[in-house]
Write a structure and sequence with these properties.
By secondary structure, the protein is mainly beta. It is 6% helix and 41% strand.
Length: 132
């Protein structure tokens, strides 16, 4: 069974379109320079114009969870599965799968990795071993 992927809405359409093209992009507010992932109106200044920028792909685990029970049929054969909130080096946070043999911990460095799911793609992050 294919993993579930959120359906893009007006705010997240750019984010998901960039992923489908193999890129992780952020949107910088043209008025105050705040960086967002999915936005229609800047929550800092109320601006509505944004410039897309390629994200560095680096980030830090802000929070995480390891699931041992499948809450969706697509995960039954993938347990345990780890996901977490990643704070991108650019500032925004997003929930994404955490990949790799390293144990997840708050503060662990991660690197963006595109995870193909059917004809779409999602953002995932590979845990970086200390010293790597």
């Amino acid at each position: 069974m294919t993993l579930p992927i959120p359906a893009p809405d007006a705010a997240s359409a750019h984010f998901f379109a960039a992923l489908d093209e193999g890129r992780l992009e952020v949107l910088r507010c043209d008025k105050c320079a705040t960086v967002h992932l999915a936005v229609l109106t800047c929550d800092v200044c109320g601006g509505g114009a944004f410039t897309a920028e390629q994200a560095s792909g680096g980030g830090t685990v802000y929070s995480f969870t390891r699931l041992h029970i499948a809450h969706h049929p697509a995960f039954v054969d993938r347990l345990p599965v780890c996901g977490g909130i990643v704070e991108l080096d650019e500032g925004p946070r997003l929930f994404a799968p955490l990949l790799g043999d390293e144990r997840a911990a708050i503060g662990t460095r991660v690197r963006f990795e595109l995870l193909p799911v059917g004809d779409r793609a999602v953002a995932a992050f590979r845990l970086i071993a200390p010293g790597e």
